[in-house]
Specification:
Mean pLDDT of chain C: 91
Chains: A alpha+beta, B alpha/beta, C alpha+beta
Radius of gyration of chain B: 21 Å
Shape of chain B: globular
Order of helices and strands of chain B: HHEHEHEHEHEEHEHHEHHHHEHHEEHH
Strand content of chain B: 5-15%
CATH class of one domain in chain B: Alpha Beta
Number of helices of chain C: 16
Oligomer: heterotrimer
Largest sheet of chain B: 11 strands, mixed
Structural class of chain C: alpha+beta
Distance between the termini of chain C: 80 Å
Distance between the termini of chain B: 21 Å
Radius of gyration of chain C: 29 Å
Strand content of chain C: 15-25%
Mean pLDDT of chain B: 96
């Protein structure tokens, strides 16, 4: 089984996901088999192949610069875990 | 239970009322769902209100549409305004969207009566419905077995005949695999055929909404109702939507059916499976089709390719779940970043976390070219394989799955679960339409035949499936263990 | 490099290298990816929808006009507009980010190259211009940011279209930086693509500053300076930074690459060390959007729609209308000002007079009343009429200033204002002749003094004529008549 090359601590910080040590160990072990398959990809010669950006050949899809009704203010805040007057409220940002 | 098109016809002919039909569907759900847990939320009042509107329209002489009065279950991944939409996750457990997905609006614009939201693997990540944060759904053919995933609830609800129609989504096989497991028809349209607006995103370049139905005719009608350009989705294509029902055929003379060498090789070791599919291809031949051997040389890289691209996109799509604007928040007096980390740790299940980690890694600095870009290049090669194959055949017929439905807990190892997508991933990566239609039984458990077609050739694909369905009548050969009869008077119990 | 920096600084032979990154909010009616109103100052969280709130299932669709505005800006600045361009996701977490990724452009921006030509003649090259979406606004609860216990978020601004303009590191001084911004502001206002109000945040600027030995081709260690709220702050902050770097180098200290915030009140930059957390933005093409292909026919059509640009206008003002370089630059600084001037010049048929008034008294009045040219009720025709009255001699220059101030504050008909305030001036020779005679008669000594050679006495007598006429005599006519009578 392939070694999982992921620095899980670093990646979980990028993803803002607090993993327990146990989760980190488990994921590492579980993803090993997947990397067996993933490593096979390295052998393919893809130098002259373009990456698929889109499976559909569309370009230039636009909307006109027209104002459309926004959400009712109450509806916009209705699912917010915490609000303060008209604002969404979140814990402080430590700079 | 009657099919959707039969219900519609009866409603339009004033033979049955939509309200009566809705009540029966709700009764069936009440009787049977405790054994299946296919539904996360049932919406009886909303359904009845809608049904009354349909009846009023019919009374006025209006035609409410292709799905007039048809009870429909919708995967809990589609936003439904005012109705809880959980995506199978704790992080959205109490989320009530202020808007509906375009496909939901289109279903309702065609007269459908939505009766509830169905269970699913969390954020569409899974092949068994065991990754739902709430409960696993069970297979009506054997409740100790999984219905497949991620659209397991929808498949189970239709398979148990609670409703004739359900909506699912397919990213790597999430409609086709559960359709195979629950003995129903499941269609993944061409990428861009159906709007993704309001569909909670997993992998943006792969996700597609599609019908899961008791028969091919209903799948055709539902697809017609939901397909078409949407100005709210920049990736939806402006191509006319045919009346798919008129493409349904009874024989296949002149149709060249591609049989995929690599796929046949991979099932050769499983005698029962190989025999079932050989029988299916035989039926196609008897209907007049000419089998042609085709190759998909890069299909073997599908798993790795998919499990780099989909997690990469999902790691970005799921970043928005941070406890600020909606959904779960876990805060304990720390700063906002601590809140993000704790909320996401508590709100996401293990499979979702695994894919976020994998996807973040695949996009990260120093690894992006080696993983994400490389995978997108191999995707190009896989699409080219299909383009080449379709110069020699009109449709491809192949396995939908590598096994009949397995027992709950049988595939605890994540990669063994990922392997369930082996036959369905290549079509997703290529963006072409593909579907599963019931093909037979192994040890009394259903197995589906997959049919794929070139982009935007759903009519051709449905036509072939219809002929096969007519000729084999698979669904009528047996009854699921858990099934509601028409009036919802409870499950039969079969040995 | 370090020793060279120190050595050069010690020899005081170093040069400054500055690059500017400017973010401009575009003046579209709706946001970049959704139909919400793009409007500054609305009540919090009222111009929001599932898309710009990043709700589950929402999808972006590109605003056509934002693309047009950026391409026109590119054409005006001589950039190459890319025939193929795309959007990428820039992934990072922050409370003002509805999706925790920003839709931006990474490796295929809409334009490359181009330049901004400063009035001095120097050209500052541009690296690129790209489109992206703005974030919401965080408001920190509590007395100071450091004390804040919570964050309040308003997403009205989230999704507003932003144009990011990156200059080459070719600016050499704080003054040039301000001139660059002034010229950029002029171009953008002429194109009508932004209202370029730094105080409202529709134009934001970060500066990259470094020093290097004079003549060295290499770039020195740079710092990024943020929190610049006006053109003046930009100049001051860059000036401070250069001085700080120079002192550091002379003291033998290494210059650290970092982000520093400008503190307007204290006039210093302070290290924002925490911003150093290396962001790995994990850019990848946004799968919810499709690429842009701008064809040459469309570009040509847009090119024909470009208005006369600031440099051409200044040139025309100087060579055709006879304005000074100073006045030309002032009046052509933004579209409102140029259009106003041109209207006054057209109505009055006196461009130089119009320029004098606008650059002088009108400007002073606006400042006094604390308003902008766009806010004054005075119409160009009204100023033109006043100019005509002065020309005809119907009102003295001094009185006209008073009338001008009244017009700037409240608009109106100059004739009526003159009449109301009794400011009419007479140029009638016989009437003024009578005043002259009166003054002469009453000031025999001064008359004698003047005739005796004292020039100053003449001015005194002119003053007396004006006094007798209660300021209503046309002073030039009075002078002439006085001179004639005195011989």
């Amino acid at each position: 089984m392939a070694e999982v090359p992921i620095d899980i601590a670093h990646v979980s910080r990028l993803a803002r996901l607090a993993l327990t040590a146990r989760e980190a160990r488990e994921f590492s072990a579980q993803l090993g088999k997947l990397f067996d398959y993933i490593n096979e990809l390295q052998a393919l010669d893809v130098e002259h192949v373009h990456p698929t950006a889109q499976v559909i050949p569309l370009h230039n899809v636009f909307r006109d610069d027209v104002v459309r009704p926004s959400l009712d203010h109450a509806a916009a805040l209705a699912n917010a875990p915490e609000t303060d007057g008209p604002y969404f409220k979140a814990p402080r940002i430590l700079e | 239970m009657t099919a959707g098109h039969e219900i519609r016809d009866a409603v339009l002919r004033h033979e049955r009322s939509a309200l009566e039909i809705a009540d029966e569907a709700l009764a069936r759900i009440a009787a049977v769902d405790p054994k299946l847990n296919a539904f996360v939320t049932v919406t009886p009042e909303r359904a009845r209100a809608r049904a009354r509107e349909i009846d009023a329209a019919v009374a006025r002489g209006d035609n409410p549409g292709l799905l007039a009065g048809v009870p429909v279950a919708v995967k809990d991944l589609f936003c439904t305004a005012g109705v809880r939409t959980t995506c199978g996750s704790k992080i959205l457990e109490n989320f009530i969207p202020p808007y509906s997905a375009t496909v939901v609006e289109r279903l309702e614009a065609h007269g459908a009566v939505i009766v509830g939201k169905t269970n699913m693997d969390e954020f569409a990540m899974g092949s068994s419905c065991e990754n739902s944060a709430f409960f696993p759904t069970r297979n009506p053919w054997d409740p100790s077995r999984v219905p497949g995933g991620s659209s397991g609830g929808s498949a189970s609800a239709v398979g148990a005949r609670c409703v004739p129609v359900a909506l699912g989504t397919d990213t790597g096989g999430s409609i086709r695999e559960p359709a195979s497991f629950c003995n129903v028809v499941g269609v993944k349209p061409t990428y861009g055929r159906v709007s993704r607006y309001g569909m909670i995103a997993f992998a943006s370049s792969l996700d597609q909404a599609g019908p899961m139905t008791a028969d091919v005719r209903d799948a055709a009608d539902v697809l017609e109702a939901i397909a078409g350009h949407d100005p709210m989705d920049a990736t939806s294509v402006d191509v006319p939507v045919p009346h798919y029902a008129s493409a349904l055929r009874d024989n296949l003379s002149g149709v060249r059916v591609g049989i995929v060498e690599e796929f046949e090789h991979s099932i050769a070791g499983d005698a029962a499976l190989a025999q079932l599919y050989a029988g299916a291809y035989g039926t196609l031949r008897e209907l007049g089709a000419s089998p042609v051997s085709v190759c998909l040389p890069h299909a073997r890289y599908g798993l790795a390719t998919y499990y780099l691209i989909a997690p990469a996109e999902c790691s970005s799509n799921l970043a928005r779940y941070d406890g600020v604007r909606y959904g779960l928040r876990v805060a304990d007096g720390g700063d906002v970043y601590a809140m993000f980390e704790k909320t996401r740790a508590a709100g996401f299940g293990a499979e979702v976390k695994r894919r976020i980690i994998l996807g973040t890694y695949a996009l990260s600095s120093g690894y992006y070219d080696a993983y994400y870009v490389r995978a997108q290049k191999i995707r190009t090669l896989m699409k080219a394989d299909f383009d080449a194959a379709f110069t020699r055949c009109d449709v491809i017929a192949c396995p939908a799955v590598s096994c009949p439905p397995f027992e709950l807990g049988a595939k605890a190892d994540p990669v063994s679960m990922y392997l369930m997508d082996y036959f369905t991933i290549p079509m997703s990566l290529a963006g072409i339409p593909a579907m599963s239609v019931p093909a037979g039984y192994i040890n009394g458990l259903p197995v589906g035949l997959q049919i794929a077609a070139p982009a935007f050739e759903e009519a051709r694909m449905l036509g072939v499936a219809h002929a096969f369905e007519r000729a084999t009548n698979v669904v009528r050969q047996r009854q699921p263990v858990v099934a509601a009869d028409a009036q919802g008077t409870g499950a039969g119990s079969r040995a | 490099m370090i020793n060279e920096e120190i050595g050069a600084a010690q020899r005081a032979e170093f040069e400054t290298v500055i690059g500017l990154e400017v973010h401009v909010e575009l003046l579209t009616r709706s946001k970049m990816f959704c139909g919400c109103r793009n409007e500054f100052g609305s009540p919090p969280n009222t111009n929001v929808c599932p898309v710009c709130l990043g709700m589950p299932g929402s999808l972006p669709v590109v605003n056509r006009r934002a693309v047009e505005f950026l391409c026109k800006t590119g054409l005006a600045l001589g950039c190459d507009v890319a025939p193929f361009s795309k959007f990428d996701r820039k992934n990072y977490f922050y409370p003002d980010m509805p999706k925790n990724y920003q839709i931006s452009q990474y490796d295929m921006p809409l334009t490359h190259g181009g330049a901004i030509a400063l009035p001095s003649g120097k050209r500052v090259g541009l690296t690129r211009i790209h489109l992206e979406e703005d974030t919401g606004k965080n408001i920190h609860g509590g007395a100071t940011i450091a004390q804040s216990q919570y964050t309040l978020v308003d997403y009205n601004r989230a999704g507003v279209p932003l144009m990011e303009i990156v200059s080459e590191p070719e600016i050499s001084s704080p003054e040039e930086a301000e001139a660059y911004l002034a010229e950029l502001k002029a171009v953008l206002s002429y194109l009508g693509v932004s209202d370029v109000k730094m105080h409202e945040g529709s134009l934001r600027c970060d500066a990259n500053v470094s020093i290097r030995p004079a003549g060295s081709g290499e770039l020195g260690t740079k710092t990024e300076v943020k929190n610049l709220n006006s053109f003046r702050s930009v100049g001051r902050a860059i000036g401070y930074e250069i001085a700080r770097m120079r002192e550091s180098a002379q003291a033998g200290e290494r210059i650290v690459q970092e982000t520093r915030g400008w503190d307007e009140a204290r006039g210093v930059t302070l290290s924002m060390r925490s911003k150093e957390f290396a962001h790995d933005y994990r850019y990848f093409p946004d799968p919810d959007l499709v690429p842009l292909t701008i064809d040459s026919a469309l570009l040509e059509r847009w090119r024909t729609e470009l208005p006369e640009l600031p440099s051409a206008k200044r040139e025309r003002y100087i060579s055709t209308l006879g304005l000074s370089a100073y006045d030309a630059e002032l009046l052509a600084a933004d579209r409102a000002s140029a259009e106003y001037f041109e209207a006054v010049a057209e109505f009055s048929k006196s461009p130089k007079e119009a320029a004098n008034w606008l650059a002088g008294d009108v400007r002073r009045s606006l400042q006094k009343h604390g308003i902008e040219l766009t806010d004054t009720p005075m119409k160009p025709g009204q100023l033109a009429a006043l100019i005509a009255m002065v020309k005809e001699g119907a009102v003295s220059g001094k009185a006209a200033k008073e009338v001008c101030d009244v017009l700037v504050a409240g608009g109106g008909d100059p004739k009526a204002i003159v009449a109301e305030r009794g400011l009419a001036q007479t140029s009638d020779a016989s009437a003024i002749g009578a005043f002259v005679d009166q003054a002469i008669a009453a000031n025999a000594e001064s008359v004698a003094a003047y005739r005796g050679g004292k020039e100053k006495a003449f001015e005194f007598l002119v003053g007396q004529v004006m006094r007798v006429s209660r300021g209503k005599a046309n002073v030039d006519v009075a002078r002439a008549l006085l001179k004639a009578r005195l011989g």
